[in-house]
Amino acid sequence: MSDATTSGRLAHHFESLEQQHESALLGMWAFLAQEVMFFGGLFTCYVVYRNLYHDAFVEGSHHLDVFLGTVNTAVLIGSSLTIALGVRSAQLGRPRATAGFIGATIALALVFFGIKSVEYWAKYEHGLIPGLAWHPEPGASPQLGIFFGLYFVMTGMHALHMLIGLGLMVVVGWRALRGRYGPDNFIGVEVLGLYWHFVDLVWIFLFPLLYLLGRHAH
Amino acid sequence: MSDHDVLPLRVYFGVFGTLLALTGLTTWIAYQDFGNLNTTIALVIASIKVVLVVLWFMHVKQSSGLVRIFALSGFFWLMILFGYTLSDYFTRTSVRGWE
Amino acid sequence: MSVPGAATARTAEPSNYLNAEYSIKSWFLTLDHKRIGLLYLAGLTFFFTLGGLFAVLIRLELLTPEGDLFQSETYNKLFTMHGIFMVFFFLLPSIPAVLGNFFLPLMIGARDLAFPKLNLLSWYIYMVGGLFTLYAMVAGGVDTGWTFYTPYSSVYANSHVIAAALGIFISGFSSILTGVNFIATIHTMRAPGLTWFRMPLFVWAHYATSLIMVLGTPVIAITIVLVAIERLFGVGIFDPAKGGDPILFQHLFWFYSHPAVYIMILPGMGVISEIVACFSRKRIFGYHIIAMSSLAIAVLGFLVWGHHMFVSGQSIYAGILFSLLSMLVAIPSAIKVFNWTATLYRGSIRFDTPMLYTLGFIGLFTIGGLTGIFLASLAVDVHVHDTYFIVAHFHYVMVGGMVMAYLGGLHFYWPKMFGRLYPETLAKIAAVMIFVGFNLTFFPQFLLGYLGMPRRYHAYPEEFQVLNVLSTAGASILGLGFALPMGYLIWSLFRGKPAGNNPWGASGLEWQTQSPPISHNFDEVPIVTEEAYAYDTLRPPAAASPEQEEVLHV
After folding, report:
1. A91, B5: Cβ pair inside 8 Å?
2. Which of A30, A37, A53 sits opposite B78 (nearest CB)?
3. ipTM of the complex
4. pLDDT by residue (tens digit) across B25-47?
């Protein structure tokens, strides 16, 4: 707590900003390990049922829109780039640029949600939402419901994480504008970036596993 | 963190470009017939993308060994969950026919 | 919220974390890890009492062979609510949330945990989860058993599964956040000189526990979500009628819930290591091995979950694998027991209350652990699966092990937490009552199970009555034994003799600060220059006297 300019940002129980930074970074990575296991439970269900009911999964995958899925993947990768650049601006001590990049990330996330809701709406119209609107075509695989059940839980949980991320971005973006972060004190932005990249990582696996199954066969 | 830790912009845009290219590649490959290998190829491409994001966007390349261990631990435990669960499903011999 | 010690605090007591502020807000919005520990203590005691009441009702019903006191549906709800409250709202958080929260920063010479706000949040999350489950109880209860096995829970049960499931889902995040907090704290906030192998074993045990909390809990969270979604929308993920596999639920459930047993027992083992060394006045035997065995238990604990599914349709080959791995966990557990025993050997042992609990723990945990090896053997498990043998086994580990360690730890650390001593004679009587009552309750259940009495039924054949009556009699002694500490510990808050800073003459940083500790734990950051448990260089304690103002140089 020696430096007067940094003491306001240093919590009382830490010795130095480095220690505070390291703590938060480690804590966030531990939290991300938790996130991996959270989605891991869903991926386990996916792996098991895909092995048991391969044909039903291929059938379900053909009901999804590859074009929209690919575009959405690109949009999410773009948002990962913008938030990474936001963290970089914070490292360089440019809070306004940080806020700008966070704004861009929010915009891209909203585009993702827009495309996603078009897809969800199509599923609703085709009667492919188990429990809410479920009227599969006659002759559909009996286990198609499991594919779509997993599709909605996996993409829904992913979307929920994005929503939480959006909330965090509003807070961090606001704080960046208010000058809360400096070149040696930007852990809030960095942790947000880690979280958002993780959300991106989940989608990078969801996309081929859900959209691209057995496309070559038909 | 000091200035020398800040990655140049070309790294970010390079990673971004590679990720986009790999996304296009994985979609294109899905329509080519590689037999049973299609899934494997898709997963390999996804893993490459994940490694790119983790190493450069998430700064693990510059991070301490401890952070790297933490980053790996989640995936390691996920493999435990997959591996041992599948050890059941892949060795069920007599209990077939409950589909 | 009453403030312990308030009556006498005004006189001459130096400033500490209890008398620093008195307002209700200063408790419910506190960021002080010590106060948060006490908030947890209050919540846990409430849920423990509630779970205990359900246990009393269960034992009353089982007094007679006929199902005369409750309908079978009511009985199903009783054992379910007993299990849910005890497992998720008492056993899992107990030692980490109370003693861990309070003492982990003190032991490593830190001013607080790394994320104090997250710590407070985790208490609120825990309470909100508890409220949801309480709502499920008041609204009519849950009858699925604490394991929520599908498809009963997801399709057929008519009770309030979703509310209870939501409660468990929410409280899981309290556990995760605590784990994240502990991991970051232990890695980055140790005092200068406190290297990894100078840390008290309590801290090692909590590190291992945190790993399980962080890596295991999310899996049950998502599994519970799937059960709720299955109930709401009938997706079919766990419903065999729609192609789902109930065994998959069991895999995911036990992937967390078996390691969860180690979340309960590892912190207990940490407490036991502290107490054994202190009351034997010896360096703990095999420090490094005990520390490493905690980590080994944490990792191996993740590889054994299939032993809950030997008879449920899991592949027999997976069964063999899980059986073998389950036996492996016995090794690090046994290492600990042997090391504690070796620590006792030629020590100058004092039989204060914490030590009585510790000796009880070592014996009962050994029985619980060894019967675990029986159950890990495929053939024996087929015979005793779903009988009272299982019930007795896990109560020996959870109550005989975990609760004994919790009470031992609570007594050991009470003088530090509140600056006052509890009445020693009464405490010894309670400890003996708990030990005797516990054995009388659960040892007959081993016999019952071996003879074939299945669990979770409210009626049983008449030949089992004698053993059941013994068990119920034991439960009454056990219940009284638990009531006693609740009474005298609260009494001691106001009337107990002042404890002094170090009544046990224990080593460790937590005993160097004043009792109760000041809000910021240490006036100066302590510097550690030697290993933990340096009892050979410590003076033995004078009989704990009020005047005692021992300054220990570590």
Report:
1. yes
2. A37
3. 0.93
4. 999 999 998 888 999 999 999 99
